[in-house]
Fold this protein.
Amino acid sequence: MDSRNSLQTIGLYDSSRRSKSAEDGHVVLPVLDLGQNLEQKLRDAMLLENPVDWKIVQIQLPASKKNQIISPYQQIVSAIDKFLRDHGGAELMEDLRSDIPRRWERHGDLVMIDACFQNPFWRQYGDDIWRLISEVLSCDRLAQKGSIASNGYRTPSVRLLLGQDGWVEHVDNGIRYTYDVTKCMFSAGNVTEKLRVSRFHCENETVVDLYAGIGYFTLPYLVHARADRLHACEWNPDAVEALRKNLRLNGVEDRCVVHFGDNRQLCPKDVADRVNLGLIPSSEPGWETACAALKRCSGGILHIHGNVETGKTTPKSCNNCDESENVKCLNNRTENEIDSMKVSERNLTNSADTCSSNSSKCSDLSAKTQPNSTKEIWGDWSLGVSSKIRVILERLHTPHIWQTKVLHIEHVKSYAPHIDHLVVDIECRPVPG
């Protein structure tokens, strides 16, 4: 064991400094200054190996390469500390230091910082602090993020600190999105679902996007999935403005009809081969609208988003199934049957023999037994949605009978323990006869 390792073993080696060679052939090793105890601890350390010739010297050693790397946060703190000293000598106390942002998002030349600088102390400096941060982060515009407004539009609470406007451009999977960060959101967390949509084959299909926003899913359907025609419904005027710009940016405006307003009133009926319902925590308010949009003669596929709580006892059982119909109830499903559902990227072979698919007596679902796994809860939720969709379809198209079938369950992301964002693909077809 060499001297360096000996010092490291007993915690005396100063890793923030670099060692160096002395002119007399010795090596100078950096150690932590422990005052009067230093010499005794060094003697103890040297006993761990063969006796060596050593002594304590006072010398300035350069910082280690690791310590020479200063994080952007540290640069901001240092710049603000110097600014305060140059403007009156105010000390950057811990309460002020904790009010400086550690995280931010970069959107081209605009940086959006987290909620910070809440202390009234900062107000006396006006825009000087914002200019200082923009210099450190090399950006022209600065914005501050707040909470999402509960106004039905999911409008972000973002304040522009520096710059003339909040319009930015983001490229995702070859698609260009532009939007005003002070008025619209870009959901980067839905990237897996947008990629999955991009792999669909929608040639010769008409698609309805009930909650289009700025085009999160509208554009993948048009650009990559090659939908023949798409009806985009959106009631947020700021999102519609961005959506129209994005359609032009990506050269697909000729294949998209934008319906500005409440989709329950404006969504076209009897036109869709496929409907996207990308609203969370629940898209249930749009289920009837989506069912009405499907083609009456041939039906289609619904892609239904929803947040599912996996920490609750929510398995389903059917109280109204007639056993003579040989219908397999949800509470009788085995773990292997749950595995047969197409969850995420696995193949789905879920047949239409579940009660949510073809029994007109299975709409009464209630809690019964503890679920065996998160996957089972996902399956129960999906089959419950499928059953409700079938009831809606048969009410809208009386006296025709419809069949619904779960094709796929996609886990998009988890928001917190026991809350999963899922998408269930449900095939809806009228039964001939």
